[in-house]
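Narrative summary of target 7.
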Amino acid sequence: MNRWLQGPIGRARGGLLLVIAGGLFGLVIAGLDYLSVTRTRERFQPVLCYMESCVLVREPGRNDRNLPGWQWVPVVKYRYMVGTEVYSSEVVSSRTEPITSIAESEAFLKRFGPGSDATCLVNPDDPNDAMLELPTMTQAERFAKIGGLAAVLGLVGLGALQIMVSIDTAPKPPKPRAPGWGEIDSGPG
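Modeled conformation, tokenized:
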């Protein structure tokens, strides 16, 4: 194995193996993130809540076409009851993502406008743990895409490198030849 990683070809192999390992690591992270979000989605229960305040703070960022523009970050406060206890929270989601379009911001305000009744999600094991929206799978999808692409490109690169190495392109010593017409025969005799 040590000889396999020596020289310029060996360094290229080592680099491609690191790319493959990084891609596989990204796929593992994507899987763990997917399981975490799935458990959160299964655990939290819907509860009626009262929206005390809801403001969208506009700040520079990326718009819905991923170009420089504006994005809106929700700042909320709401109350809800679990049993006979009243709780309050300011959490939009365990992974709050900025809103990137005006249409999305208007829809958010329509759903969670101040003074309205909405549905929030509460952890029955810990009623202080609540959110308005469940986390999305976008982070897991992003890790899976990047990790998968890195692993595939690394494997293709390693395969191409192995094919190139297996093709013998080293110069060969000239073969001895018989004297041709008009050449002096310097052989015996």
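Helices lie at 7-43, 102-112, 138-166.
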